[in-house]
TrEMBL record:
Domain Treble clef zinc finger: 31-65
Domain annotation DUF2726: ranges: 289-366
Lineage top rank: taxon: Bacteria
InterPro entries: DUF2726 (IPR024402), DUF4379 (IPR025487)
Protein name: Uncharacterized protein
Length: 378
């Protein structure tokens, strides 16, 4: 039956999902009601919704300490990092106050002074004045060579700084970026051609994009070769191309999936309906495929009446971090089995695609609750 968790059940679930990372110091009532927790690592205490911790949220105290460590970087260390990325093209003339606090820089080519966040400078962004100048074709080609050497060739006609122009990388890839991006230090999207990354630089870039949520546990080779990463929230490990993790912001697939599931949970709890999460088919009375688990099971007259599935992108097309084509075929097969078995058992199924807005998701769920007479909690 779909009953509210007890305090003990919540503590056990938190221990299973997060280890002994947190201590629950107030009584659990519902997933959506904030209660006090303590971080065992730093002893910080704060109020948070249980569903947030179960979905991967971390300790704000630990997060602030991580940011504090970044702020402790000296100006000399930052200057050395800028030199590695930009050579002697950019000089740091302001005071370094942290990766995200603007500081003054000077372009040694045009003497322009501008303020920029160090994290952006270390990602390869350069002088905005140089990037925006009106140039002839020859001027532009010379500027590209000065920044990228012979790694990038201009093969289209340059017209203006913000109009896309065809370029070709030494690796053979052709693409159409804006000249402002190329002059700002961005390189080939295929080989990560801003500069040759070291493993240490890649680890730093991952931290700049994802904070302390993602740990690099494989050794960086190049932008396209997949390496292992670990989610610090769940401990989940997955293979991903560095290009996707840094440039496209791809993070833990399990956490990404849980964001939608968290929304569904909050909507169901706001309507005070009976539901369970991740109930196995075996527990629902099925004799086959007993290990399959719907995301949510809702009840009417104490019987399973409606299953809600929040489907991520991997349910609709192949995705690298979900094992590509092979993983997609397995997912489609599993989804079809679920549909067939639920239909035969007379259990309705509501499938929510990942691209639906929060408002659309709420409307879909509310209509299903009313249509199928879902039972309210006592």
């Amino acid at each position: 039956m779909g009953k509210s968790k007890t305090h003990e059940e919540y503590v056990a679930e938190l221990l299973e999902k997060r280890g002994d990372e947190f201590e629950v110091i107030e009584n659990y009532e519902t997933n959506a009601k904030k209660i006090m927790h303590r971080c065992r690592k730093c002893s910080h205490e704060w109020t948070v919704r249980p569903i947030n911790l179960l979905s991967g949220s971390g300790c704000p105290g630990c997060r602030n300490k991580s940011l504090s460590k970044e702020r402790k970087k000296t100006k000399e260390q930052y200057v050395a990092e800028v030199l590695k990325v930009h050579g002697d093209n950019i000089e740091v003339i302001g005071t370094y106050k942290g990766a995200r606090n603007n500081t003054d820089h000077q372009c040694n080519a045009c003497k322009n002074i501008w303020s920029a966040a160090p994290t952006n400078i270390l990602k390869g962004r350069g002088c905005p004045k140089c990037a925006g100048k009106n140039k002839t074709q020859d001027d532009y080609i010379k500027c590209v060579y000065k920044i990228h050497g012979d790694k990038i060739r201009v093969i289209g006609m340059y017209k203006r700084a913000h109009e896309k122009t065809k370029h070709k990388c030494k690796c053979g890839h052709e693409w159409n970026p804006m000249p402002t991006d190329i002059l700002g230090g961005r390189g080939c999207p295929v080989c990560g051609g801003k500069m040759k990354r070291t493993h240490e630089r890649y680890v730093r870039e991952v931290f700049e994009v994802h904070g302390d949520k993602v740990e690099v546990i494989g050794t960086y080779l190049n932008a396209k070769t997949k390496i292992m990463h670990r989610c610090k929230a769940y401990g989940h490990e997955w293979d991903a191309a560095p290009l996707n993790v840094v440039n496209k912001g791809s993070a833990c697939p399990k956490c990404n999936e849980s964001t939608g599931e968290k929304l569904v949970t909050e909507i169901l709890e706001s309507h005070n309906v009976l539901f369970d999460t991740q109930v196995s088919f075996g527990d629902m009375g099925f004799k086959k495929h007993t290990r399959l688990r719907p995301d949510f099971v809702l009840y009417s007259n104490e019987k399973p009446t409606l299953v809600i599935e929040y489907n991520g992108i991997q349910h609709y097309r192949p995705v690298d971090i979900f094992d590509g084509e092979k993983g997609f075929k397995i997912t489609v097969k599993r989804d079809n089995i679920k549909r067939e078995m639920l239909n035969k058992a007379g259990i309705h199924i509501l499938e929510i695609p990942y691209y639906k807005t929060d408002v659309e998701v709420r409307e879909m769920i509310e209509q299903a609750i009313e249509r199928f007479g879902i039972e309210k909690r006592a």
